[in-house]
Amino acid sequence: MRLKNICKSFKDVEVLKDFSLNVGEGEHIAIMGKSGKGKTTVLNIIMGFEQPDSGEMNLPKEISAVFQENRLCEDFCASSNVCLLKKNKSLAKEIFDKLGIDSTQKVNTMSGGQKRRVALARCLARNAELYIFDEALKGLDEKTKAVAMTVIKEYTDGKSAIFVTHDINEAKDFADRIVEI
Ligand SMILES: Nc1ncnc2c1ncn2[C@@H]1O[C@H](COP(=O)(O)OP(=O)(O)OP(=O)(O)O)[C@@H](O)[C@H]1O
Ligand SMILES: [Mg+2]
Fold first, then answer.
1. What's the CATH code, domain 2-180?
2. Which residues of 100-138 are buried (b: 16+ CB within 10 A; e: fewer)?
3. 43 lines ligand 1 (CB under 6 A)
4. For 129-154, what is the HEC assignment?
5. What is the CA radius of gyration of the chain?
6. Strands (E) located in the chain
7. Going residue by residue through the chain (181 aa), what tens digit of pLDDT does each one get?
C-alpha cells in the first residue's frame, strides 16, 4: 500500500500536505500525532471515503477496519454484527471468546468497552489485505487492553496493518515502525 504526496483540504483548511506513506506486505505501522492533525483523514482516503485533492495512491482492494466510532447495529447481538456480511460464525465465536464477549448479547445492552470489542471482532473476523485500527483500544482498561492487543496481533500476524493511537506504548507494542503525522 502506498500514498505519495497526498494533499487534502477541507474548504480553506489544509489538513494534509505532501503526505506519503508506504506499508509493506505484512508490515505493521503505527500513526501518531496530535488531535486534528489528519490521522482519520488519511485512513478515510485509504478506505475511499474521502478523495485527496492531489497525490498518488496504490491501494489494496480488501480492507477491514475498526473505525474511530463503533458503527455497530445496536439492535443486533454481537454475533449478528460480525456475521451480517461475512457468515463465518465459528471464527467470530472464537474471537469473541478470546475478547471475553458474549456473542448472543444485544449491543444496546453492552458497556462502552464491550461495544468496542465487538467492533474489533468484526474487523478481525474478515479476511483482508490491509487492517486499519483507529484508536481501537480507546476506553478499555489496562488488563482488557492487553488481552485485546494480543488478539489483534494474533489475527493480523503476517498481514499489513495501520494502527492509529495516542498511546506510545501501544504503538511500540504493535508496530514495526511509527509514523508521526
Ligand atoms: N468531512 C470533513 N469536513 C470538514 N473538515 C473535516 C472533515 N473531516 C475532517 N476534517 C478536519 O480535518 C482535520 C483533521 O481531522 P481528523 O479527523 O483526520 O484528525 P485526527 O488526527 O484523526 O484527530 P483525532 O486524534 O482527534 O481523532 C480536523 O481539523 C477536522 O476538523
Ligand atoms: Mg481521528
1. 3.40.50.300
2. ebebeeebeebeebbbbbbbbbbbbbbebebbbbbbbbb
3. no
4. CEEEEECCCCCCCHHHHHHHHHHHHH
5. 16
6. 2-10, 13-22, 28-32, 54-58, 63-66, 130-134, 160-164, 177-180
7. 999 999 999 999 999 999 999 999 999 999 999 999 999 999 999 999 999 999 999 999 999 999 999 999 999 999 999 987 666 788 999 999 999 999 999 999 999 999 999 999 999 999 999 999 999 999 999 999 999 999 999 999 999 999 999 999 999 999 999 999 9
Whether 44 lines ligand 1, by a CB cut-off of 6 Å, is: no
Atom number of ligand 1 nearest to Cα 50: 1
Which pairs from 110-115 meet CB under 8 Å and 24+ separation? 110/78, 112/139, 113/139, 113/140, 113/141, 113/144, 115/70, 115/72
Residue nearest to atom 31 of ligand 1 (CA): 36
Check if the beta carbon of residue 67 is closer than 8 Å to that of residue 119. yes
C-alpha of residue 162 to centroid of ligand 2, in Å: 13
| Cell of residue 86, nine digits | 461475512
Ligand 1 binding pocket includes 37 (Cβ within 6 Å): yes
